Please model this.
Amino acid sequence: VDVLLVEDDEDAGELLALALASRGATVRVAVTGANAMLEIEKRCPDVVVCDLSLPDGSGLEWLPKFRGVRGAPSVRAIALSGNARPVDREDSLAAGFEKHLAKPAQIADIVSAIVTLVPAVGPRDLHSMLSRLASLTECRFTSLLRFEADELVSVWTYDRDRPSLDPF
Model:
């Protein structure tokens, strides 16, 4: 999975990039929205994990610009923010982010969010993908799977037993 991490705290970005890379992701890091645009123009990632408070504007404002780059209109996006109120989550989703994770987020929660948005498997591998997802968190998932033709395009999950543990 090709991840573009947009994080202005260079130390936090480096640590998160190392953690994601250790789990098999290819990670590029940008410290501003403008840097992220340059990275997206070079190569569209599978998913953008974006801090909402950037030195050159809000991630909420940058996401439509990211998606305006040729070849990136449907890039998947996860908001990563210190703002964790319900209204902050609603604002992120309204801006087009598919997931909103509050800082400090656990690496397992970030990986789970990425896996649900960018399932790198076909229908035959669905069982192993869902088993992997279940192994990354304490949540017991109920999943909604969306297919286009024969291709799995998204997995939405909900912890049916303990909704307070569900990071999404």
Observations:
- The mean pLDDT is 83.
- Helices lie at 10-21, 33-42, 59-67, 86-95, 107-117, 126-135.
- The radius of gyration is 15 Å.
